[in-house]
Fold Protein-methionine-sulfoxide reductase catalytic subunit MsrP.
Amino acid sequence: MARYRFPSIPESAVTPRELFRQRRRFLKRGTALSAAAMLPGGLLLSDTARAWRASLSERLDGELPRRELAGNETLTPRDDATSYNNFYELGTRKSDPEVYAHKLVTDPWSLTIDGEVDKPGTLAFEDVLSRESLEERIYRLRCVEAWSMVIPWIGFPLADLLKRHAPTSRARYVQFESILDPDNLRGQRSSILDWPYREALRIDEAMHPLTLMAVGMYGEVMPNQNGAPIRLVVPWKYGFKSIKSVVRITLTEERPVSSWVAQNPEEYGFFANVNPEKDHPRWSQARERRIGERGKRETLMFNGYADEVAELYAGMDLQQHL
Ligand SMILES: Nc1nc2c(c(=O)[nH]1)N[C@H]1C(S)=C(S)[C@@H](COP(=O)(O)O)O[C@H]1N2
Ligand SMILES: [Mo]
């Protein structure tokens, strides 16, 4: 297997990051004046909630290694990336996730890692965070609906987390599960999907160095509408694979059935690799609308990550394996 290398791009090439920093400091000064642990609704944050938010935002203020992995394409404005979303638990309109973001309860949060691992466990989110080194990565995000963005994520490789739990030799797939909370998540009262939202990767895809668990974006803690407190980001696959608000990761021997495959296997495949040569049954995938731009862009094979990931699919017919 060829060795994977990040493209090396000078630090100076892209630096909107100082801008996020300044903005964050500004926001912090503002909130320091209000009662420290009060939420807008007058709810009090639990101690554990305060622990993970405070320690994460402190870490985000420090210098994080950063990698530009979107060919220096312009970042999508933060306001677009947080107001035009797919997060069906909060509603199906693009504006719903921002409007109902406060309905996603992220405090406290825990993450379970189980199945084919020698060291299963359920950890408080702050304990997951404290084990990992964070970095910033700029990736393209391409939705199956033919729109795209360029987003600066903050997170850590999924491989780092999985290795700590010692996958067994039988582990061939990794399944992810989102939060199930129909009392608060209005979308879960409708049956568009079989809840909780589930996704899965083959183990080699999950261990690939580009596969990220993201806990922030644009230099800040992950906004609820983007999948707080922790979500998957797989930049060479259609966006629906990048499952939000993950509560459980299960390693399996058999290939799991993800929510979209269960809903419509003709339209949504297990692999869901971005492929401009394979159209969706109802529309072309050859081009995409970059949010914030006029006109259309050509969609790139594997969303522009072919040099890094094409070898994972060597010998597979990509017209057949959706
Ligand atoms: N739990 C959950 N994860 C999800 C979704 C969802 O509805 N629920 N939508 C997916 C889709 S279709 C896309 S395109 C991306 C969108 O991520 P963003 O809103 O952060 O841009 O999230 C993915 N992850
Ligand atoms: Mo999507």
In short: The radius of gyration is 19 Å. Residues 1-15, 29-37 have pLDDT under 50 and may be disordered.
